[in-house]
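Hi again,

Forgot to attach this to my earlier email, sorry! This is the prediction with magnesium ion bound. I've pasted everything inline since the attachment limit keeps bouncing my files.
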Amino acid sequence: MDRTTIDFGIDLGTTNSEIAVFKGGDVEVIKNNANEEFTPSVVWIRDNRLIVGRNAKQQLFVDPDNVHAEFKLRMGTSEEFAFKRSGRRLRPEELSAEVLKSLRADVKQRLGEDVEAAVITVPADFDLPQNQATSKAAKLAGFQESPLLTEPAAAALAYGFKSKDDKVFWLVFDFGGGTFDAALVQLRDGQIDVVNHGGDNQLGGKLIDWAIVDQLLAPEVARRNALSDFRRGNPRWSAAFAKLKLNAEAAKIGLSREEATDIYVDPLCKDDRDQDVTFEFELKRRDVEKLIDPFAERAINICRKVLQEANLKPGAVEKLILVGGPTMTPYLRDRLSDRKSGLGIPMEFSVDPLTIVARGAAIFAGSQPLKREAAPRPAAAGTYGLELVYDRVTHDPEPPFTGKLSAAGNAGFAGFTVEIVNPGAKPVWRSGRISVPPNGAFIGSLWMQEGLQVNTFQIELKDAAGFAKEVEPKEIRVSWGNVIVVPLAHSVGVAMANGETDFFVAKNAELPAQRRQVHRTVRDIKKGAGAGLRIPVVEGQSPKADRNRLIGTIEIQAADIKRDLPAGSEVEITIKIDKSRLVTSKAYVPDLDQEFESVLQLERKEVPVDQLEKDIEFARGRLAALRAKAAESGDDPGFRKAQQAIGRVDGERMMSEVDEMYRNARISKEEADKCNQRLQHLNLALDEAEDALQWPQLKTKVDEFVTFMHKIVNEFGKPEEKARAAALERDCRAALGRDAAVVEQKLKEISRLTGVVWPRDPGYWVAWFQELSSLTVPLKDPALAERLFNRGRMAIDDGDLPGLKAVIEQLLPLLPKKVQEEQENRHGGGTQSTGS
Ligand code: ADP
Ligand code: MG
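Structure tokens for the complex follow:
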């Protein structure tokens, strides 16, 4: 089939993957060989055959050395998955490519078509290396084009397509097998905008499965049988645990419909006396609900934060859109709809939560023109070619077009008419017959149905006698507006030598985005020798660089520079993020006139387990200290906010989760990484509490600064400075109790303003002079200094301000270098304005 738009959409999931195709106003999910709409993202290498999907998933416990699942969680890392028997080692993107190939093969099977382009979805919380790995997987699988779209945006699109609602907010709640996303979307005039989103790519259904195993099944297995050291971390039992997990998952799914379900595993493993162990267990819905609670709470907290950041109350959100298999759990739905402990937003789950993302992706794909236009073909005898020029994306309800008809050979088209039809419009719209003149060229306009994201127009060509003629293309598609805005999930910046983050592109920025900032080197770099320059690139929201996630490094090799670079040299750093969130960087050094391109090496930092242990203990200490401090007392909003942050830590059981994950961290890199990420969440919450507890002090500081600023500015300031002072006070107080970093920033601005105005006060110079005369440091020319001090005292007596300023200026160079610098810095505003 000759396509002009991408049309195919793929949900490349942690647990399951799906492919759907846009078909002139409708979407079809393509079934796989097993006749199912979803394909487990599992790869098994049997001898030399690579098998993807359901059959591979069934091997998870039968042949664990040769099968891998959940590799999406490792996308963007350099980890390799070993397949023992064949000796092959595959990277996460190579495994994902196999899943994509299998979906492509399903399309070939069902539609007989080779898919060359597809929109692929990624979690909103995916970081840059993870996205890059996804694009790579698509390339490996043979896709020529594969724009990325976030999963919640796709889900919203699946409902938007069917909905006639307008001007409302929706919250997409996507609880998948391994990732959680919450996205606030807005429907405006038929367009979908993602207003804000948050998420956690270590939260999903598989955590429920493992909780069932660790807390209900495994203890029971151990209690009933003689099995030494029966725990998940013990390699001897890994096959047994994998079996338990699969059974736990199946039982969990069963509990979405039944109150209780039986688990029967025979054999589970062999006991210490080499006897087969059979395991039978009745799993009750009630028991599992208790386990789900902390995960539900985490998800709900993320939703609340997403709303809060957008200044929205849950009541302002019209619909909660449920996505992902676990949202079929009745308890989760109850929790979500609860007014108090949930979100209290009406839920929507009429579109199948397992395939909704692929459906939305296909709808999006239907509006994306292929980059490679189909080559214009000479019309075969008896058929006609139509060259249509029109905007594929439009704001115009009646977009114009031009057309030119051509015929094969010397067949003419005297008396021919063209009619364009929009069958999706209500009522069906027809252009009316347009007569084709002898040169074949004509013009007209289309008619777009409001609320229908993608309009498909059919072209009807008739000859003079009114008989239909073959024409290519037979239909065209036009979409409304900028179909979708896909903002950046996290801010991206660089870590500076002082431990702070310098943000280049802010969260929610529209992509593509690019920013250039000048930095300075902090130490000498010798040509050719030793370390060059390494600037860590991070992703996250914290002003503290090490709280963010390291996603790569901008590197300039010492061997590559033309000559030595002294400390303090300028480096212009450019970070560019494209629509698919791929990041590239440039570092330009003006002094060398050298540019270092694509030096950004994406990598994920792996934490050594010993370091992890230390970090955990440090966090535990901090939590205890902050808990004590927050409990002390106080009605200050700071205390309340700190208590809230600590309440979140407790409610989500963050500390004990970190401890649980740490237990497995020594045996698996994935668990270590998970543990570290959860620890970062904990640290963020602790940072929040710590900042909030500073507020009472910060408030005192603000009061002092503001009072002094007004005193000085009221007396010596110009009108515009008085207005500025009032604005600064307002901004500063508004940030109090909300954002400590903003308060600090405003305080800096307040000192700067005060520093500019204060030197107009003669008292400023008198005070400075007195400070200088009370210094006990040795002066360079004591005799000259003595004369200057005398002259200064006389100037004060005479009220001679210029004289006093001149004395201070001459005194400064007599101080020891360090003291002089310190004085000049502290009175920066003063020295600058001496000349004015
Ligand atoms: P992903 O997006 O990560 O691929 P999916 O949306 O396919 O995830 O969901 C997979 C998860 O959904 C698995 O953890 C699976 O156990 C769970 N799941 C599937 N169906 C149900 C159900 N009916 N009730 C509860 N959980 C379910
Ligand atoms: Mg999913």
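The two ends are 76 Å apart (CA to CA). Confidence is low (pLDDT under 50) at residues 829-836.

That should be everything now.

G.
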